[in-house]
Every structure is written in structure tokens, then in C-alpha cells.
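Hey L., structure's done. Input below.
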Amino acid sequence: MNIFIRNGEGITDTVQSITALLRDHYVCPDTAATLSATLTEKLREGEFDQADSGADLAKKMNGVLKEISRDSHLGLVYSEQPLPMQLPDPVRDEEINLRDQANNYGFAKVERLPGNIGYLVINEFVYPEFAGDTAASAMNFIGPTDGLMIDLRNNSGGSSFMVALVASYLLEAIPPTHLNDIYWRSHDVTQSFWTLPYLPGKRYGSGKPVYLLTSRRTWSGAEEFAYSLQAIGRVTIVGETTGGGANPGGSHRINDHFQIFIPNGRVINPTTKGNWEGKGVVPDIEADSEQAFEMAYELLLKDVKV
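Output:
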């Protein structure tokens, strides 16, 4: 048993820190209050004292967090190794940047298929200051194709700025298109995301068919990309309903072994006035994720021949 878990005060301090962070940062203050009260009650009843490891404690607490909030982003993480005093900045951390570079900034494959169909696999929306050149190269390559498939089946999300950049390639420069809004509780402001009038690569434009492939693993920023473009009728989505994680936020260090991701933003799509939190993005054409490629490809070949 981890010494931290044997120390009752350690568990108490962890729970108290979490409840304070929830009250200060969680996007829905009423839900934060309910979460805090419930965690405090379960602590008092000794439920968390039954945890036999740090991982087990995180599991028990996440059960409470998920049951009440229904928020797939909100979650406590246990680390066997001591956490750094300051958590990595995803924009400035050298290790993260090297990992992104090794993964080609999320662009796993770009290909021209028979029938002049473009195929682009994006597994992560890395910040555009790093991934912008890669996106431009990919779009230049597939620019001459007559139809395009973008594969998001293994995309776990990323930057809303990169989502807007890639979406801009699929729409006209003028007029700009309002893609998404995010309300941030921390500053009580709403941030808007629009398509960009200038792009460093070849704009695909709005006249050619684009299909998106999704799975249950498609999540967060990848869902934002799919939801925003589906809402304005720009794409056809083929595959499975996505994971359902809409609320953005950030990680907070609690102590040497625990950190928590707390959403402090709420997506408000300008077209639907809603989002995909807890529901996922529902495809236009439902298909098992393993069959989505062949189905979309066949449909695209028919589209470009019309």
C-alpha cells in the first residue's frame, strides 16, 4: 500500500484540495458545489479510506465526479512517480514538442486514392504554430483531388486554433465563417473561432465533397471539428457516434501524486446553440468504424462522377 494512502490526513488534504479547485474553476458553479458537497460527505463517511492504492482512490473519486457531472473531461489522475512542481505547458514544453514532431504533428497519412480522391489521416490537432506548415503541405498535396476523406477515427483532440485552421481550408475565404464559441468561466468571456482569410497552403474550397470518418474514440477537439462543419452542412460524417467530450479546461497539480483535469469552458456552437457534451457527434451515415473507410470511399466515388 502506498504510504500516501495510509496517511489519513493525505486523503483528507487531497479531497479538500479537489473541492476547492472545483469551486474555483469548474465551468458550472452549481455542479461544482454539488460535487464538493458529495466528495466531502463521502470523505466524512470514510468511503475513501477503503482505497488500497493511489490508483484505487482516483478510481473511487472519479466514479463520484463522473456520476454527478456527466463530464467526460473532468477526471483525477494518479501518478506512481512524483509529479513535477509545475505541470508541463503543452505549448512550451520541449518534451511534448518533440513527441508532436515525431508524430508529424498529428498528420499520420496523406494520400491520393484511385478516382482522384484525397485521403488525410489526422490523429491530433496540434497547435498551429507547430503544425501549420505540415497542414499546408498536406493540403497542397490533396488540393487537386475531386473529393476528400478526413479520417478522425483515432483523433483524441487538441487545439481549437488548429481546428479552425484546418476547417478554413475547406471553406471559402470570404465571407469568413463563424465556427465555434467557447465561454470561459475563469474570465467570464466568450471566445469566438472563425475561418481565416489567408492560408499558407492551397484552399480546398467549398465546392468539393468532404467526408469525415469517426469512431467512439474520436474525442474533444476532433469532435469540435466534426460538429462545427456538420452544423453548417459542409461535411458528411460516416462512422460511429463520437466520445462526447466538449468542455475544455486544464490540469491542476494537487500534490506529488495527484492531478486533476477541470473543464472551465463551455462550447456554444453559433449554429445549433448547443454542443456534443455527453452525447457525441452523431454521424450522418452510421457505420462500424472498421467499415467507415470503404463506405465513405464508395460514396465519394459516386459523388465525383455526378
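The chain has nine helices and twelve strands. The chain has a mean pLDDT of 94.

-- N.
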